[in-house]
Every structure is written in C-alpha cells, then in structure tokens.
Amino acid sequence: MQSDLVAALDIGGTKIAGALVDGAGRMLLRVRRPTPAREDAETVMAAVGEVLAELAASPLWPEVAAVGIGSAGPVDASAGTVSPVNVPGWRGYPLVERVAAATGGLPVALVGDGVAMTAAEHWKGAARGYDNALCMVVSTGVGGGLVLGGHLHTGPTGNAGHIGHISVDLDGDPCPCGGRGCVERIASGPHIARRALENGWRPGPDGDTTAAAVAASARAGDPVATASFDRAARALAAGIAATATLVEIDIAVIGGGVAGAGEVLFAPLRRSLREYATLSFVRRLTVAPALTGGDAGLLGAAAAATEARHGRQAVSYTG
Amino acid sequence: MQSDLVAALDIGGTKIAGALVDGAGRMLLRVRRPTPAREDAETVMAAVGEVLAELAASPLWPEVAAVGIGSAGPVDASAGTVSPVNVPGWRGYPLVERVAAATGGLPVALVGDGVAMTAAEHWKGAARGYDNALCMVVSTGVGGGLVLGGHLHTGPTGNAGHIGHISVDLDGDPCPCGGRGCVERIASGPHIARRALENGWRPGPDGDTTAAAVAASARAGDPVATASFDRAARALAAGIAATATLVEIDIAVIGGGVAGAGEVLFAPLRRSLREYATLSFVRRLTVAPALTGGDAGLLGAAAAATEARHGRQAVSYTG
Q1: Does domain A127-290 have CATH number 3.40.50.720?
Q2: B78 interface with A at CB cutoff 8 Å
Q3: Strand B81-82, strand B75-76: pairing
Q4: Which of A179, A241, A314 shows the shortest C-beta gap to B278?
Q5: What is the Cα–Cα distance from A301 to A27, expressed in whole angstroms?
Q6: SS3 B253
Q7: Which of the residues B147, B170, B274 would you substitute to probe the A interface, choosing the one with the greatest number of A C-beta atoms within 10 Å?
Q8: Average pLDDT, integer, range B42-53
C-alpha cells in the first residue's frame, strides 16, 4: 500500500537520517548524512536539504503525501521550531517552514525524538496493541513519550513524555536542566558509570568505563556494579510508577543503550516497580524492552506524519 | 436550558450529596444524607437510594437525561465499581449497576472524586478556558485530575490524576499506599501538622493542632510552622512539575482545606515551582486556587455525565 507514502526525517546530534516509508511501515529508501552539529544554522539545514534531495530523486517521490520529522529536543511543535541541545546553531530554528519550502509545500509534522520513538513502538514495536503506554529511551540521556487512549499524546508543544526530567528525589543532586533528583540524573548511562566508579568499581584491562562495561561486571556478580544498576532501576521505577499513577498506562517500553543491559536492569526494575506502583489501577503495569531499535526515529516520524494527516494529534503541521 | 438536566451524586466518607444540575451548571435541587460509613454495603446503598428518591420526587425528574457520580476512590470506572477507603462495606461494589436500577435505567457515569473536582474546575472554576490543566485537592489526603487537549482525562479506570501517590522522594518515608515519599505523605494537612509538631511547634491555648492552626502560626511569623508549609509546597511543586513535564499542562489549580492557607502555601509553591519546572515548555506554568469549593463534587459529577453523554471520555457508562 503506497497511497500512504510519507517521507521521514530523524534529526539528531550525530546524524540526519531520511527515508520513504509506506503505510505498512516499510522503508523503501534510506538516506543518511552526518550532522554538521558545530556549524551555523544554514550549514545544518543544507545537510537536511541534501537528504531531502536524495529522497526526492526517487521515482516514488510524487506519491509522497507528507513529511514527518522526529528531532532531538527541545522542539516547539506549536511554533514549528527546534532547538536541539547538541546543535547549538539551531535555536528556535523554523525547521517546519524550511522543510515545507524545500519540498514544494508538502504538509510537515514535527515531534520530539522521545515522541517519535513512542510512535514507532506503538506502531511496530512492544507497545503495539496497547492503548495506554509510556515508551522511553535510556542511554546518554533519558527521554520518552506517551500513548493515551490509543493515540500519541504529544502535548501542545510536542514535548510530552519528558520522563528524564521529572524529579524522583526532591532533595537530590542538581541536574543540568536546573532541577534536582531528575530520573536522568540517576538512571542515564553516564550516571550509572559515574556512580559505579565513585563507589570503587574499576574497569577491566580495556579501560572501558561505559555503562555497558558496568553491566558486564554486574552480570559477573560485581556488587558495586550491581548496586549502581539497582539504583538506576529504582529511579526508573519511581518515574514509571508516577506516570502510571498520573495518566494510567498498561505498559512501559524501554529502549536505548542502557536497556541493552537486559536483566541487569529489568530484574531490579520489575522489583522496584512493585514498591512504587502500589495503587490498584497501576499494579498490573508491565515493562518490556523496545523492539524498533535504530529504526525508531524514522518509523516514528512517519507515524507522526500519518497521525497528523488524519487530524488525530496536535503536532506542528503545515499543509 | 434544562434539556441538559442531569442528576449528580457526590459520595464521600462523611456525606452523600445529590443534586439536579442544569446545562448551565445551576443546582436546581440539593439533597444530602450522612454516609453510614461503618455499616454494611446495603445500608450504605440505602442512603444513596434515599438521596435518589428525594431527587426523583422533584417535578423536574422526568427531564433528567443521565446520572453522574463522583465517588471517593479507588473507583473502577471500567467495571462500574467503587471501593472507597473510608467505606469498608463497599469493596468492588457495583454502584453503577445499582444506581442505573434505582433510576429506571438512566445512563450512569462514574468518576473518582479527584476527576470530579477537575471536571468542576474546568467547567466553572479556575481551569475554565484551559485545554491542559491539573486540578488538585490538598486536605486530609491529596487527590487530583487532569484535563488534556480540552477534555477530562480519566484513564481507563477513572483514576488518572492521582498525584497524591506519586513519589517525589524515592528514599522517603513509607506511605500507607505501600509506596515511599508520596506527595501526600509530605503535603497533606495531617502531615503538615505532624512535621510542625515534631520540630517543636506548639498549638495555641485552644489546643488546635490542625494544618489550619499551623498556617495561622506561619502567618504570624513562626519559623517552624513556616518551614512545614515550605516543605509541603516543595513536594507539591515537584509533583506538579513532574505532571507538567510528562503531559504538558498550563495551569495547576489547588483546592481543599490546605489551599485555604493562602499565600502561606502559594508563595513557597510558586518559588519551588521555578526550581522544578525547568524545561522550556513547562516554565510558563501557573498555579491558582480552586473556585468551586464545596460544590465541586456535584458540579463535577454533572460535568462527567454530560461529557459521557457526548461520548468524549471513557468513564463507566451504562445506558
């Protein structure tokens, strides 16, 4: 079914990926450029333009009905602008307007990358079939998005689901966001590694001090490495339970590098969830690893474009 | 406009209130009975039946199109049952079915009391005109509800918005719900008073040790009383900021006895919110006192019945 063909853009601090995605979620063409993240705004936009030009050279392009963009945040979907933390040249950059212009006026939908990953997991991943879900990426940072009542809940600015920056420890360590005790400040990969090192964990001969190395030590029985993952799991559990208690969700889907630790993370997470998700209506909550992996950004951008075309959400949308 | 006439029930541990409410939110008849909270299930139901019978004796009754119920929680709107903590005789009690039977088969909508208060504030109170709002009651407990995208967000079981039982202090004191560091465990009236007493505050000659007495001392400059309210405000701010960060809200409306402390609560709350609501899309968040007061339960039950009739939410609904 190609009547629902859309162009998808996944814009991050490292790469700009593009694809043509059909109504069944098949990637019919993929394009990728490195993000010139330290350059000025127009140089970054030129890289986006190259990705779009390569997609537009496809014989399928005339069938493209809309463009979906998932971008590193913050985004402002109501204004159609993006301000990715890792792309300093773009601050309040009018990406929606520029992409619309570059594609001859196609409708353009914009969501944050956490929302995009959520759209992907709801469409083709572990949240498929769930009407109420939280999907998260736990890696260098912690991001997320929500499905409520069967549809993506983006919020007016496209930033809903920012679980990494809710405080689960109101007297906790300051977070670069300005808050304290944020989920990300406890559960991200770099903080899992930092905490392990501070408590005496030492890397192997390869000198690898990433969360993946801490996970390997935990798997081998190292108590300090295990304790650091337990602490991360506890913060994630408190945040997931808070989300379920506030909006009612049935599943929390977790992707990203830290989720790759597997049971080192998921076992204490399930245990801690029982401690924080206590009210009757949240006790049946389950957690599951994400399934869409590296395609999540593109798939989710395509899903957001499709949802926006059908008028089901408040993403930024010109058309 | 009486074509939208509904019957409203507000069921709590102390009283069962009923009203006929027209489409403009006017209370055309009010009825009230004490809740026989320690009695068996059928005795409690008999009191509800008396309230309904008194409403049904009105010459307006034939115009009633639906019944809305706001009940102390937990409720299960999907099953049509209620299990109010303070009414032990009702556990999984099929209230929707019983009220439908008692009213000759009228459609019945059920929501929790936090959701009902939210519906009232969105219809006639401080959240009017806001498409995205959190409304809370801070008194003996802490409850709440959400308006998202212009409509009440009840969740599948009618319990969404339970902000009192999200953890803002993952290592904090155990809460009777089974969790730790819940907002309610820090910010409810009894805990404001407990903390003040534990830290050396002493009541006046009248021996009043309620949060209202602590508020009076704080207003008079007592530092321990002030510190206890500051701590409550901090927990509320962390919870409100978490909610805004997760679902994007523009306003938090606060009612209940503790909100009656006025600036003793609201001044430190606004200060603390700046500390926890840090991301660009939540910085414009405001807080305001609730306006619907004692009528919130009845007004909100009526609003929920009206929303359900128009198919806009997933409250329990037989008809």
Answers
A1: no
A2: no
A3: antiparallel
A4: A179
A5: 12
A6: strand
A7: B170
A8: 98
Looking at the predicted structure, is the pLDDT value of residue B301 above 50? yes
Considering only residues 10 to 69 of chain A, which have any Cβ-Cβ distance to chain B shorter than 8 Å? none
pLDDT, tens only, A11-62:
998 999 999 999 999 999 999 999 999 999 999 999 999 999 999 999 999 9
CB contacts under 8 A, B 228-257 vs A, are 234-235, 238, 241-243, 245-248
pLDDT on residue B42? 97
∠A275-A281-A283 over CA atoms, to 5°? Answer: 35
Q: Do domains B6-116+295-318 and B128-290 have the same CATH topology?
A: yes
Instruction: Work out whether strand B251-255 and strand B133-138 pair parallel, antiparallel, or are unpaired.
Output: parallel
Residue A240 has pLDDT above 90, yes or no: yes
The pLDDT value given to residue B85: 84
Q: Where are the alpha helices (DSSP H) in chain A?
A: 41-56, 95-102, 113-124, 183-187, 189-198, 211-219, 223-247, 263-276, 296-309
Q: How far are the Cα atoms of A200, B76, B176, B188, B242 from residue B69, in angstroms, in the given order?
A: 57, 12, 26, 25, 29
CATH topology of domain B128-290: Nucleotidyltransferase; domain 5 (3.30.420)
Residue spans per domain, chain A: 6-116+295-318, 127-290
Cross-strand pairs, B18: B9, B31
Give me the interface pTM, i.e. the ipTM: 0.92
- Whole-number pLDDT of residue A308: 77
Q: Where are the beta strands (DSSP E) in chain B?
A: 6-11, 15-21, 27-34, 67-71, 75-76, 81-82, 108-112, 133-138, 142-148, 151-153, 251-255, 286-289, 316-318
pLDDT tens across B126-152, in order? 999 999 999 999 998 999 999 999 999
- Average pLDDT, integer, range A130-146: 95
Q: How many Cα atoms occupy the beta-carbon half-sphere of B216 within 13 Å?
A: 9
d(CA B254, CA A265): 37
CA B278, CA B99: separation in Å to the nearest integer?
Answer: 46
Q: What does the pLDDT look like over A242-277, one tens digit per residue?
A: 999 999 999 999 999 999 999 999 999 999 999 999
- Grade residue A312 by pLDDT with cuts at 50, 70 and 90: low
What the block records as the tokens of A76 is 């402002």
Does the structural domain B6-116+295-318 have CATH classification 1.10.238.10? no
Which residue(s) pair with A81 in the sheet? A76
